[in-house]
Design goal:
Elements lengths: L1 H35 L3 H21 L2 H4 L19 H51 L1
Helix pairs in contact: 1-2, 1-4, 2-4
């Protein structure tokens, strides 16, 4: 039963991460094309999609949380394992979805903060270049 739970949480985390990756592909692509303005932006887009998938899966499949179904708690004198009931299945799937989204949200927040800083740097460089071009004419 534990192995099935592990596989289900893995599949749910993959599905959620792929959905989020698909939703954010166009905005990330536009940002990267604006900041990098080179063919290498396509490679960065592939990396970002891969990173969304990895972060989503690693955040969503919480191995340490799932261990409670195969290893009894240390403070439990009776050495009971938690039983995987229907309610616990629903709760674990819900936790997987939320944890996957939360991990991806933090990663995308970090990306967008870095992208904003890079955008400001690019804009300042463009303004200086225009100013220099207009002064030289």
């Amino acid at each position: 039963m534990f192995l099935t739970l592990l596989l289900v949480t893995f599949a749910v985390a993959i599905a959620v991460a792929l959905l989020v990756s698909r939703m954010f592909t166009q905005p990330i692509d536009m940002i990267l094309k604006r900041i990098i303005a080179d063919a290498i932006s396509a490679a960065w887009l592939k990396y970002m999609k891969f990173a969304i998938l990895v972060v989503g899966i690693s955040s969503g499949v919480r191995i340490y949380e799932l261990e409670k179904y195969i290893v009894p708690a240390r403070f439990d004198k009776e050495n009971k394992l938690l039983e995987l009931t229907f309610e616990r299945w629903i709760l674990e799937i819900y936790r997987t979805i939320i944890a996957t989204l939360q991990g991806i949200a933090w990663m995308l927040l970090l990306f967008f903060v870095c992208a904003l800083i890079a955008y400001v740097i690019v804009r300042v460089a463009e303004m200086k270049r225009r100013q220099t071009d207009s002064e030289s004419q």
